[in-house]
Amino acid sequence: MLSKRAKYAIKTLLYLHNNQGETPISAKTISEQERIPYKFLENILRELRQHKILKSERGAEGGYKFLKAPSAIQVSDVIRIVDGPIALIPCVSENFYQKCDECISEENCQIRKLFMKLRAETLLILDKSIVELGDL
Fold first, then answer.
1. pTM of the entire predicted model
2. Which residue of 14, 26, 53, 96 shows the fewest CB atoms closer than 10 Å?
């Protein structure tokens, strides 16, 4: 299941994409418009800034803007940043791989084959960019 943090991160990026202009958008505005608790949003924005997706500007006209082009930000990347692996079991994860302790042969494991297929199909959808998601 997608965490609220990941959902709010995606909502935040969609909001920024749909409302981007010359002026940065404040966390307060995002919080109010998207109904995301402000303190929760601050942590999400910090994480997106640390991963070089957003940049922040201080001052009265300060706020958040994209550092990385929205067309280059995949939904799958946002989920990985906020929630970690997309794969449901660790032996099929590309970025967070771990061998299953009880597995005798990964090559013959039917459960692994099923979840590899599920992961591949899921990524076909989640590898869409924020821009493409906004067009759905």
1. 0.86
2. 96
